[in-house]
Design a protein that fits this description.
Layout: H1 10-22, H2 26-37, H3 46-58, H4 62-74, H5 81-93, H6 97-109, H7 116-128, H8 132-146, H9 152-164, H10 168-180, H11 187-200, H12 203-214, E1 216-217, E2 220-221, H13 239-242
Helix pairs in contact: 1-2, 1-3, 3-4, 3-5, 5-6, 5-7, 7-8, 7-9, 8-9, 9-10, 9-11, 11-12
Length: 265
């Protein structure tokens, strides 16, 4: 375009940057970005900055992503929740707790409302640190403070954090709480719990989980039966949206209040 005497517009630049990012070539994306950031030919909008921030995050270059993010903020462009989630996810991938706290504080300062996707990242971050208590605290406090319901992905992240820390008892309590709220567990959640119960020798729990996953009650299929587990991008749907939850009564231990009595500590 430029060689032919044309002028690169924002739409073309977005396409070029996106292609570079998809190809994993952040060096080329950075060169393009810097070249046109110096001049006034292209009006840099949120989409251009978002592509760069996400690209750096995907490449594990969190610091570079934050640099571009701050430049975007200096230009007065407001970020959105998915962009903050991308930054938090990159921090979680490298276990950068201090940077994650900065990003979360910036998110609150911008009055950007966290979502269940934000919760997933924060729970994973605490789980990577082996802190079940902090993962439980975040899981309880963030939705309550910002008025949203955790989805199946968030519950799975919490179950996974508990299992990684060797807290099968707390993971089962989380699953029980999930069932009581009508949120359908994903196949991954069932697989993780069944594998953990089998390893621990809790055969009754493993059988109960398999029956729950299959939607069985005393060996009879229920309306929430096979295929009722949460799956796909909308795994967050509740039982009210996808059909009745399995009606099987869980063992008495799992009927206790979730993660009560300081279990996560």
């Amino acid at each position: 375009v430029c060689a032919a005497g044309g002028v690169l517009d924002a739409r073309t630049l977005r396409a070029l940057l996106a292609a570079s990012v998809r190809g994993g070539d952040m060096a080329q994306a950075s060169e393009l970005f810097s070249q046109y950031a110096r001049g006034n030919e292209v009006c840099f909008d949120f989409a251009i900055y978002s592509i760069m921030v996400r690209g750096f995050c995907s490449a594990g270059q969190v610091e570079e992503g934050l640099r571009v993010f701050r430049e975007m903020r200096e230009r007065g462009l407001p970020p959105d929740a998915p962009l903050f989630d991308a930054l938090l996810g990159a921090c979680a991938g490298r276990n950068l707790m201090s940077l994650a706290e900065e990003v979360l504080a910036d998110m609150e300062a911008c009055r950007v409302r966290p979502t269940s996707a934000t919760l997933v990242v924060l729970v994973r971050l605490q789980g990577a640190r082996g802190s079940v208590a902090d993962a439980l605290r975040v899981f309880e406090e963030l939705p309550a403070r910002h008025g949203f319901e955790p989805d199946s992905r968030a519950y799975h992240a919490l179950v996974a954090a508990c299992l990684a820390a060797g807290r099968l008892d707390v993971a089962l309590d989380v699953y029980a709480s999930m069932s009581q709220t009508g949120c359908l567990a994903s196949a991954r959640t069932y697989e993780a719990l069944v594998a953990a119960t089998l390893r621990s020798g809790a055969l009754d729990e493993a059988v109960a989980l398999v029956e729950d996953a299959m939607g069985l009650h005393d060996g009879v299929a229920t309306p929430g039966g096979p295929g009722a587990t949460a799956s796909g991008a909308d795994g967050a749907r509740s039982a009210g949206e996808r059909g009745a939850a399995p009606t099987r009564t869980p063992p008495a231990r799992r009927a206790a209040p979730p993660w009560g009595g300081g279990r996560g500590s």
